[in-house]
Amino acid sequence: VxxxxxxxxxxxxxxxxxxxxxxxxxxxxxxPMNWYRQAPGTExxxxxxxxxxxxxxxxADSVKGRFTISRDNSKNTFYLSMNTLKxxxxxxxxxxxxxxxxxxxxxxxxxxxxxxxxxxS
Length: 121
Known about the structure:
Blueprint: E1 2-6, E2 9-11, E3 17-24, E4 33-38, E5 45-50, E6 57-59, E7 67-72, E8 77-82, E9 91-97, E10 115-119
Parallel strand pairs: 2-10
Antiparallel strand pairs: 1-3, 3-8, 4-5, 4-9, 5-6, 7-8, 9-10
């Protein structure tokens, strides 16, 4: 099982980024997928979740209306489009498969390296 996150970077407040997560080693199209983020000194928290078919989504209150999760099962990849970014969105972003929508991570011992998002002027 492998997750490779990409697309992070430094962006000014109000800016946008699109993160990607390429997954392999399991039946990607059969499982919900989650995006998480972890700021220094804090726990890893769920940001967004998407069903296996992509028709149901979940967002944490802090990102609702600004972030959009999507997936392409033909590419074993899913995405997080982030708009109107705020300094409090600064964190390392990770992905994983989920045990049910917005559930616990399925492969809790197989995290990727994450991708850093820094929102600062």
